[in-house]
Write a structure and sequence with these properties.
The protein is α+β, with helices and mostly antiparallel strands and about 60 residues long. It contains one helix and two strands, in the order αββ. The chain has a two-stranded antiparallel ribbon. It is rod-shaped, with a radius of gyration of 19 Å.
């Protein structure tokens, strides 16, 4: 009797987790872009590297 309910909850969670990770990834990218732009605004040179796994790093010199 409880099985359909439990199955529905599991399916909803499996859909929600990747969606949350995508939103979190976009937020991280926006933060990195803002860091990159603020570095350029101060007159410094900046490099942004985006790895194949999606990790972004900003170097300000």
């Amino acid at each position: 009797m409880l099985f359909p309910f439990i199955l529905t909850v599991i399916i909803l969670i499996s859909i929600a987790i990747p969606g949350y990770q995508i939103v979190q990834g976009e937020k991280d990218q926006q933060d990195k872009l803002q860091e990159f732009e603020s570095c350029l605004d101060t007159g410094n040179s900046a490099t942004m590297e985006i790895a194949q796994n999606g990790e972004t790093s900003v170097t300000c010199q």
